[in-house]
Amino acid sequence: MRLVRSALICALAVLGLTALPANAWANNGGGGEASGGGYGVAVRFSGDGAPSGGGSTVVRMPASCWWESVKYDYGGFQQDNPSSWVAWYDDLTNPLASHSYASDGNYTWGPRSMYQAAAASPNANALDLYSINCRDNATYCSGILMSYAGTPQVYDPGSCPVPVTFRFFAGAPPQPLVDPQDLAQVARDYMVIPDPVAERNPKLDLTGGGTLVSLPTWFWVTNPDAVGAATGGTRTIRAQVGPVWAEVVARTSGLSINSPAGGTSCSPDRAVRVYAPGADDSTGCTVAFDAASVRYADGYPVDLSTSWSATWTGSGGTGGALPGLSRTVTTNVPVAESQALVYSYR
User: Fold this and answer.
1) How confident is the model at residue 216 (pLDDT cuts 50, 70, 90)?
2) Is 304 exposed, middle or buried (0-12, 13-18, 19+ CB in 10 A)?
3) Average per-residue pLDDT in the chain?
4) Closest Cα to residue 269, out of 287, 254, 249?
5) Per-residue confidence (pLDDT) for residue 136, from 0 to 100
6) At 222, is the secondary structure helix, strand, or coil?
7) Per residue in 236-251, pLDDT tens?
8) Any alpha helices (H) in the chain, and if so which ranges?
């Protein structure tokens, strides 16, 4: 991962100077402990697809930018020696002092007054200096990074405004900044879509609770959220981390029923329509099985499925498509042939 030095490079390119070497930057994970699964980030979920009805959940995910503690490996900075901070800052910025840019804000390190105030603070021994680390060049010049840095831009050569990316914090720094697309993937993965739970009619005792060949058998979903019946076949989840947000909308065309002897697809409205005596079979979600289930000891395995497409929108005008989701449950339905005696009269 690359550190936030491209903002400095952006300015130095205008001045014809050379940027600091990469190994001058600390990499101590001060903005949160990273692992193979990313950083632990508190994500606030909302919407009808939010887990537990909404609220904040700590999620392991990639970080776009994060604060890292500056240690001795950054130009000899002495984190535990406040009296040295101003001198360190002067040594760092003096080689650039002849350039007009220095008076505009002394690059990404911030103004000298910030270091003076920190060193003079009664709380100085509890302060730590942090720098922003980012994984993606596209983030460096964005307004989101400016907001995350928490300081105004100090230089704008016309295409790449430079934020102050060094700050003193007492205790933990702000949590990592995330990318809207990464956040959308997290929202999609956390979206709650229930498995469809269905009832059916008839359930004939003489067939072991089953139905008959060619008889329209009604199925209806008893948990309408499983097909988004109240929202036109959609479920929505919104995730937010600081200024970054992403909203995912999942859409389904309804319930699919499949078995070795027949199946159907029904819209969300039809999928939740409950059987009633005398109801027109064409208004319900019905299957007429075309053969008896004699080769299946427990009856035909009938799959009840929903398939959901997923799209997202996010902060900064972002958005796109995500991998779809699906839910399937299987129930056994015995199917018998009706028997009749035929008499011939002569």
Assistant:
1) very high
2) buried
3) 83
4) 254
5) 74
6) coil
7) 999 999 889 999 999 9
8) 6-15, 85-93, 100-103, 112-120, 137-140, 143-149, 180-190, 268-271
Q: Note whether 303 and 338 are within 8 A (CB).
A: no
Rounded to a whole number of angstroms, the CA Rg of the chain reads 32
DSSP 204: B
* Residue 49 tokens, joined: 């697809």
What is the CA angle 210-216-221, rounded to 5?
75
Token couple for 109 = 């390190």
233-287 confidence digits (pLDDT tens): 999 999 999 889 999 999 999 999 999 999 999 999 999 999 999 999 999 999 9
Res 344 pLDDT > 50? no
* Strands annotated E in 253-317: 255-259, 262-266, 285-287, 300-314
Size of the chain, expressed as the number of residues it contains: 346
Tell me 194's DSSP state.
Answer: P
Distances (CA, A) of 14 to 8, 22, 145: 10, 20, 21
My answer on whether omega of the bond before 202 falls inside 30° of 0, hence cis, is yes
What tens digit of pLDDT does each residue of 12-40 get? 333 322 232 222 222 333 344 455 567 88
| 182, amino acid identity | D
Query: Alpha-carbon distance 229 to 246, whole Å?
Result: 24
**Could you report the per-residue pLDDT of 76-117, keeping only the tens digit for each?**
899 999 999 999 988 888 765 554 444 444 567 888 889 999
- DSSP element (H, E) containing 211: strand 211-212
Q: What letter does residue 158 receive in the DSSP assignment? A: S
> What number of other Cβ atoms are within 10 A of residue 339's Cβ?
5
Residue with tokens 């008839």: 202
Q: How far apart are the first and last CA of the chain?
A: 95
8 Å CB contact between 82 and 125: yes
Which is it for the CA torsion 79, 82, 88, 93, positive or negative? Answer: positive
Partnered with residue 159 across adjacent β-strands are none
pTM of the predicted structure, to 2 decimals: 0.79
